[in-house]
What does this fold into?
Amino acid sequence: MNEKIYKTISGSGAASLVMGILVLAMGIAAGVVMIVHGAKLLSCRRNILL
It folds into this structure.
């Protein structure tokens, strides 16, 4: 019985760790994309105003 609980908790902990890493990586990637696109918009602003 205890071994089954141990395996269940181990699997759940590993899945949570993997999901945490994936969410962190996706958050960083989304932030970088937003910064790049924001910089492009600000650089194109000059063309509109002139």
User: Anything to note?
Assistant: The mean pLDDT is 90. DSSP finds one helix and no strands in the chain.
